[in-house]
Amino acid sequence: MHPHHSAHDEDLRIASLRRLQVLEPAQEERFDRITRLATLTTGAAMAGIALVDRDRVFYKSLRGLSVQSLPRPATFCTVALDTEGPLVVPDATQDPRFAQLPIVKEAPHLRFYASQPLFAPDGRRIGGVCIADTRPRRLSEEELHTLRDLASIVETELQVGALVQSRSELASDLDVARRQVFIDPLTQTWNRAGILEILQREHARARRTKTLVGVAMVDLDNFKDINDNFGHLTGDRVLRTAAERMIEAVRPYDAVGRYGGEEFLIVLVEREASRVASIAERVRANIAQRPVSMDRRAISMSASVGVACSESAVGQQDIHQLLQRADEALYSAKRNGRNQVVFAH
C-alpha cells in the first residue's frame, strides 16, 4: 500500500514532510544547482523539485517556470505519488490522466513529464525530482539513471537539513536545561551561581571598555519576623513579590538574582556611578511602595540596599572586593535604620 492510500497514512506522510521544514518559499542554491543539472543533462526545458503537501505542491527549486506552488489537483504529482518508481509521460495530451490539466491545455502547454520519487529520512514519499517539456519525447535509460542520481542528491540534502535541525533543537534544549541550573525556582530570578556568572562577564566587559559595573546588594528588612509571625508560605510570597518589584525597577539589560535567603544581588551596567545609585533607590522605593496582600492581611515590606561600583581605572578591583564593599554598605544601611540605600565610597 502506498503512503497516501489511507487518510492515516497520508497524515503520517504530511507529518514527515513538514518535519523537514522545507516548505518555506525561500530559494536555496543547493537545490537550484540540482535543477540546473537536470535541464543540462536531460535537455528538458523545465526541471523542478516538487514537495507534495496535502492540498498544494511546493517547488523547492524550479527552472523554466516562475511559480512557487500549484494546487495539487492541477499537477502530475498525485498520480506520481501513486506510481511505483518513476513516472514517465511521453505525451500528456494523449494520456487521459493528464490531458485536461490546465498546465497541459493552457500555458505552458506541457507535453512531456517525468518524475523520480523523493523520500523523507523515515522512508515516506514526499515528492519528486521532475523534468518537463512542451514537446513530446522519450526518456532514455541513461537520462532516467541521471534523474535517479539527482533525486538521491536531493534526499541527501534533505537528510542533512533534518540532521542540522535536530542538532539545533537539541542544542536549544541543552541551553534551556543549562539555564534552569542558574534559575532560583521560588523567585524565577537568577540564583547565586547564575548572578555571579553574569557579574563575572560584566566585570570583564567593563575592564575592556573602560566603563563600570555596579552591584546593588538588597536585603529584605525584618524578614525573619515575617516568617515567624505569618509562616513560610507568606515568607515565600513576600520573596516572590520583592523579586517582581526589583525586576520592574531595573532595565531589561540589568540582572536580578537571589544571592541567598532574603538577600538579592543586582548587576547594573552603567557609565555613571550616579545612575547606579539612582536605580538602586528606585529598587528600594518599588519594594516598599505598598504592602503585600496575603490571606486578607497587609504585610509591610521594605529593603536595605548597599551599592558599589567597579571602575577599570581604579586599581583593577576584583569581584570579591566589589562584593565586599557592597556588603559593607548594606550593613551600614541596616545599622542606620533600614529601608535606605548606602553607596560605598
Which fold does the CATH topology of the largest domain refer to? Beta-Lactamase
CATH architecture of the largest domain: 2-Layer Sandwich
Q: What's the rounded overall pLDDT mean?
A: 87
CATH homologous superfamily caption of the largest domain:
GAF domain
Instruction: Give a count of the beta strands, DSSP E runs of length 2 or more.
Output: 13
The CATH class of the largest domain is Alpha Beta
**Counting H and I runs of at least 4 residues, what is the number of helices?**
10
3D architecture notes:
Helix 10 (319-335) links the parallel strand 12 (303-311) and strand 13. The protein starts with 6 loop residues before the first helix and ends with a strand. A six-stranded antiparallel beta sheet has the order 3-2-1-6-5-4. It has a five-stranded mixed beta sheet with strand order 8-9-7-12-13, with helices on both faces. Strands 10-11 form a two-stranded antiparallel ribbon. The protein folds into two domains: 7-171, Beta-Lactamase; 192-343, Alpha-Beta Plaits, CATH 3.30.70.270. The chain is α+β, with helices and mostly antiparallel strands and 345 residues long. Helix 2 packs antiparallel against helix 5 (141-181) and helix 7 (223-230) runs antiparallel to helix 8 (232-249). It has helices at residues 7-19, 29-42, 77-81, 102-105, 141-181, 192-209, 223-230, 232-249, 273-288, 319-335; strands at residues 46-52, 56-63, 69-71, 87-89, 112-119, 125-133, 212-220, 255-260, 263-270, 292-294, 297-299, 303-311, 341-343.
